[in-house]
Prior knowledge:
Elements (H helix, E strand, L loop, with lengths): L13 H44 L6 E6 L2 E6 L11 H11 L3 H13 L15
Antiparallel strand pairs: 1-2
Helix pairs in contact: 2-3
Amino acid sequence: MENQTIVQVPYNNNALKNDITLWITLENQLKIVHEKTKKMREMKQGASERICNHMKMANGARNKIKIKDGELNAEIRLYDKKEYSPLTFTYIESCLKKIIHDEEQVEYVIQFLKENREVTSSPDIRKVMC
């Protein structure tokens, strides 16, 4: 039997109680989905690595494998995927230091960028365990 959360709301407002119960249910389900998705990504990554290793061992002679995807014919191709590191303030600062030799100017630019980022704010709720 699934755990049921008891909602205690100081108001006699069934709509609010229903919304809170729904929110808690969805929050719990999203956590489960997130955990399953993470596990599936890890499994897919492992399978991808094994397939790539197999294809590489064929010395490039097999850089593609024909497959049947349902009713459609398809193929898996080996290619070099480019991944870029994130554009962080640390990275920007290290790059600026290479072209601007005045440390104070670099710090000024970094501080300016940090202070002038666009920030948006919106109300939200969070479950906190007591």
